[in-house]
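User: I'm putting together a teaching handout on how multi-component assemblies are represented. Below are the sequence lines for each component of a complex, exactly as they appear in our records. Could you produce the 3D structure of the whole assembly as structure tokens, so the students can see both representations side by side? Please keep the chain order the same as the input.
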Amino acid sequence: MNTELRVINEGTAELQLPHSCPTCAGPLELRISADGVRSFCATCRSIGRPRLQQSEMGTFVLDFKDIGRA
Ligand SMILES: [Zn+2]
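Assistant: Of course. Below is the structure of the complete assembly, with chains in the same order as your input.
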């Protein structure tokens, strides 16, 4: 999967992952900060706090434990 990390500032970055919404499989927007990771799907408006892990290969792995439903 190709991902593009957009660095907002020193402590915050944004990432868009296609087909990654656990609810509707739509594109998922991620905001990564020192506070953790928040995900937002513009298609079904679900908000989550997945855990994000980056492998040594530079790919991202999401772990949705408690996804919120708006
Ligand atoms: Zn969705």
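A couple of points students might notice: The chain has one domain: 4-65. The pocket of zinc ion is lined by residues 21, 23-24, 26, 41, 43-44, 46 (CB under 6 Å).
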